[in-house]
Amino acid sequence: MTVAQSKNYPLDWNIISYMAFVHSVALLAFLPAFFSWKAVGVMFFLYWVTACLGITIGFHRMGAHRSFQAPKWLEYFFILCGSLACQGGPLDWIGLHRIHHKHSDTKNDPHDSNEGFWWSHFGWMMYHLPANDDIPRYTQDISNDPFYLFCQKYFVLIQVALGLLLFAIGGWPFVIWGIFVRLVVVFHVTWLVNSATHKFGYVSHQSDDNSKNCWWVALLSFGEGWHNNHHAYQYSARHGLQWWEIDLTWMIIRFLQIIGLVTDVKLAPSAKQ
Fold first, then answer.
1. pTM here?
2. SS3 string of the chain?
């Protein structure tokens, strides 16, 4: 599907309105009344919880690729953290990601990078694409899990509950920074993995798509920017395969493996110790 063809699909006004709302409210952070250094600190802490523990470890390396096994309580903790990203429920996120890998940079890839940077960054989300209807076929292994279903159905309410907690602790500055600014930052860092790492960087492995290793996306996303490595070895819990390819997410997974909390850790051949 090309960008021109996408116009044959209906716009998803729910997503468009939601994204406009979150980005607009985040702009309130520029007003002095909503600024405090404590609020900024809360934002960075929750950014780590959401992007690293939630999206990168929970939804991506564990959920989508089953790169390691964890006890249910820990697995559910990571899935809960991922749900705080408000990028849809875990079934939607994991299903679309699996579809992306199945059809990477072809017409059936929902964020095909051949259609341009902005399309792969966020334009694809503004339409109801056929890939959305294929999600159940790609999530059969988790579609009956009660906790995944709970997060799928109530991820917005989970965010509201966090917002109420932040308001009780630090008022509106904590809400603006801890919810809205954080969501915008996590949104765009996640989207950069779809867009920038299919355009900027170097190729070290054959992957039959446009994926590249991009150091600055890796820095922002806790190691997800080593994207060519990931597309070459999708199952690997470690994405930074060279010593200079710093992968903070892998460091956490490796620590959890050392203390016995995660098992069956899958690695690319060059990363095995």
1. 0.94
2. CCHHHHCCCCECHHHHHHHHHHHHHHHHHHCHHHCCHHHHHHHHHHHHHHHHHHHHHHHHHHHHCCCCECCHHHHHHHHHHHHCCCCCCHHHHHHHHHHHHHCCCCCCCCCCHHHCHHHHHCHHHHECCHHHHHHHHHCCCCCCCHHHHHHHHHHHHHHHHHHHHHHHHHHHHHHHHHHHHHHHHHHHHHHHHHHHHHCCCECCCCCCCCCCECHHHHHHCCCCCEHHHHHHCCCCCCCCCCCCCCCHHHHHHHHHHHCCCCECCCCCHHHCC
